[in-house]
């Protein structure tokens, strides 16, 4: 096992990784920007290094600074967390070149899956159904017209290197196509430094279902069931649950088995998530994330498996602690992403937390870096806390979630807690029959400010 791990991240996910390390007796090094000197991840780590100024490009994306911090602290491994450098194959390569372990899959697998058209081609080869669309990035307008004509409108234009739900454009008919491609290409260039786009059939109101998988270096590969992440705003997940209220045990076994066989044939090692859209009774691959997911805790709650510890063990060349037959699913778990945002306008709400009280009691878990007196800086993403609840069944889980949301006090800033209280009162959410369009309907319901 590693002796010391540097965590190249911040916020709640840095804390989550520090906790996994300390549970395993591994020392930790936090890195931070000048804006994060008072951050909880700096306080909880054994050591810390300031790696640059407040903008991410000067600190959390500053590869030379991060590598230097790992070397001067004598770390053996780097955990990239989520976002920032976690899906950057060049970074993983540089980490290896400096004789450090990268806690994640091989640079090749990161690169292959990061290129979404390549990932879809690989999925097709592996026999995984994909959303109908272009086989490659679109070359010009007539290519786009041909593809869209073949699959039928509406279509979705997506950035080949996209992520975080950004840069997608829905096109209702051919007259909108040229302008939408131009806008999508511009957005892709600005957000991802690559203007390539591809086209997919726009599925009407699908569900987003994803399978968590992990694979060690000895051919042991297991899946940990699915997460339903359909409650999204602008394609970004807000509320996730496991198991999905619509996935049957036989579908779980079938889809999980397909993912495990595919990951084996890929030769993939590490943890990963294979994402599908579910529409008209069928699952269609959309992408694979080659890193830890923000919503991993709900899977941990129902399986009792610490995904971060397993991820670290895999990178250290150890065996997975579980085989598929040891994996059991107990009860139901839900995660609410509590963003520091206005719950009506969704504008960011950074600033000073005057007082803070986290809910507790049975089945309640908080993954958050907030504390009373902490000032949320305006430079990074808005995720302030994840409230995760676990109960014996879904109905009781929703009741426990309401109780925990009502206990939660975060004052001084605005948060999405009031939105989550509305979400859990929605009849489609209560029945489990919701899809990726449901949250926008809840947000825009008449009578709302
Ligand atoms: P990103 O990597 O940016 O998160 P994804 O491909 O994972 O993008 O898609 C994010 C979300 O966008 C999905 O969960 C779904 O809500 C929506 N989406 C993506 N592709 C389609 C599609 N072909 N049809 C309808 N909705 C889609």
Q: What's the gist of this structure?
A:
By secondary structure, the chain is an alpha+beta fold. The protein contains 15 helices and 20 strands.
**Fraction of helical residues:** 25-40%
Q: Biggest β-sheet: count, sense, barrel?
A: 8 strands, antiparallel
Would you state the CATH class of the largest domain? Answer: Alpha Beta
Main sheet: strand order: 13-12-9-10-11-14-19-17
CATH superfamily of the largest domain: ATP-grasp fold, B domain
Q: What would the principal axes of the Cα set say about the shape?
A: globular
Oligomer state equals single chain
As residue ranges, the low-confidence spans are none
Bound molecules: adenosine-5'-diphosphate
User: How far do the termini sit from each other?
Assistant: 53 Å
Strand content: 25-35%
Key phrases:
449 residues, alpha+beta, Rossmann fold, Dna Ligase, domain 1, D-amino Acid Aminotransferase, Chain A, domain 1, five-stranded parallel beta sheet, 20 strands, globular, binds adenosine-5'-diphosphate
Can you offer a commentary on this structure?
With 449 residues, the chain is α+β, with helices and mostly antiparallel strands. The chain has 3 domains: 4-86, Rossmann fold (3-Layer(aba) Sandwich), CATH 3.40.50; 132-201, 2-Layer Sandwich (Dna Ligase, domain 1), CATH 3.30.1490.20; 207-443, ATP-grasp fold, B domain (D-amino Acid Aminotransferase, Chain A, domain 1, 2-Layer Sandwich). Helices cover 34% and strands 25% of the residues. The protein is built from 15 helices and 20 strands. The strands form 5 sheets. Strands 13-12-9-10-11-14-19-17 form an 8-stranded antiparallel beta sheet. A 5-stranded parallel beta sheet has the order 3-2-1-4-5. A 3-stranded antiparallel beta sheet has the order 7-6-8, with helices on one face. Helix 4 links the parallel strand 4 (77-79) and strand 5 (101-102). Helix 7 (141-151) packs across helix 8. It is globular. It starts with a strand and ends in a 6-residue tail after the last helix. Bound molecules: adenosine-5'-diphosphate (ADP). Adenosine-5'-diphosphate (ADP) binds next to strand 8, strand 12 and strand 13. Residues 131, 156, 162-166, 200-203, 206, 208, 232, 235, 275, 277, 286-287, 436 line the site of adenosine-5'-diphosphate.
């Amino acid at each position: 096992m590693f002796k010391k791990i540097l965590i190249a991240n911040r916020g709640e996910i840095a804390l989550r990784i520090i906790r996994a390390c300390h549970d395993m007796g591994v020392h930790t090094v936090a890195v931070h920007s000048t804006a994060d000197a008072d951050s909880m991840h700096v306080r909880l780590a054994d050591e810390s290094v300031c790696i640059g100024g407040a903008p991410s490009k000067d600190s959390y994306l500053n590869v030379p600074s991060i590598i230097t911090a790992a070397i001067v602290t004598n770390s053996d491994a780097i955990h990239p967390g989520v976002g920032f450098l976690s899906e950057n194959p060049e970074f993983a390569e540089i980490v290896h070149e400096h004789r450090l372990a990268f806690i994640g899959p091989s640079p090749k697998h990161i690169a292959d899956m990061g290129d979404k058209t390549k990932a879809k081609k690989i999925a097709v080869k592996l026999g995984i159904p994909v959303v109908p669309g272009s086989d490659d990035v679109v070359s010009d307008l007539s290519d786009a017209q041909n593809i869209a004509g073949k699959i039928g409108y509406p279509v979705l234009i997506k950035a080949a290197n996209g992520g975080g739900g950004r840069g997608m454009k829905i096109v209702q008919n051919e007259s909108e196509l040229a302008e939408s491609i131009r806008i999508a290409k511009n957005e892709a260039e600005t957000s991802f430094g690559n203007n390539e786009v591809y086209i997919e059939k726009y599925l009407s109101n699908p569900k987003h279902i994803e399978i968590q998988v992990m694979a060690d270096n000895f051919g042991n590969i297991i899946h940990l069931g699915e997460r339903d992440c359909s409650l999204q705003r602008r394609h970004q997940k807000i509320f996730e649950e496991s198991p999905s209220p619509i996935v049957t045990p036989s579908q779980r076994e079938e889809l999980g088995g397909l993912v495990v066989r595919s990951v084996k044939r890929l030769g993939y090692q590490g943890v990963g998530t294979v994402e599908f859209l579910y529409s008209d009774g069928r699952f269609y691959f959309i992408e694979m994330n080659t890193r830890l997911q923000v919503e991993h805790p709900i899977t941990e709650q129902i399986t009792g498996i610490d995904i971060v510890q397993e991820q670290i063990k895999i990178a250290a060349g150890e065996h997975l602690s579980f085989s598929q037959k040891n994996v059991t699913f107990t009860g139901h778990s839900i995660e609410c992403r509590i963003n520091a945002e206005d719950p009506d306008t969704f504008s960011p709400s950074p600033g000073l937390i005057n007082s803070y009280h986290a809910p507790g009691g049975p089945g309640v878990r908080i993954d958050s870096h907030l504390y009373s007196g902490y000032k949320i800086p305006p430079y990074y993403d808005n995720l302030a806390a994840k409230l995760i609840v676990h109960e014996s069944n879904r109905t009781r889980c929703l009741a426990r979630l309401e109780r925990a949301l009502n206990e939660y006090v975060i004052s001084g800033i605005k948060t999405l807690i009031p939105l989550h209280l509305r979400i859990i009162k929605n009849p489609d959410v209560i029945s489990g029959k919701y899809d990726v369009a449901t949250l926008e309907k809840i947000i825009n319901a008449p009578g709302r400010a």
